[in-house]
Design brief:
129 residues, alpha/beta, six-stranded mixed sheet
Amino acid sequence: MKKAGILNRHLAGALAELGHGDGVLICDAGMPVPAGPRLVDLAFRAGVPSFAEVLDGLLEELVVEGATAAHEVREANPEAARLLDERLPELAHVPHDELKALSTDARLVVRTGEARPYANVLLRCGVFF
């Protein structure tokens, strides 16, 4: 058994399969999950695990070369907006409907238990060298 890092076997396996340019959508419990990408649903109950916990855990495991969130997060969920701005300084913003459309091309969707609106971000994988 792993001693540290991500212990969820489905998530650890999905992350190991990602390559340069692949998209990873981290989403709240209310975001419509697109049919195409692989889904790892971590939601246990409202707020567990939080968007912040999942984002921080994935940022420890991934090289990220770009990220996109919804414009609406700034007004509807200032706490999530601050978190995203702190963790992802090059964050791009698009309308929420466009984020949903972009998420259909993601390779992986990680659903959190977050129950606040617009706690969603689409990450684009980079390479470590």
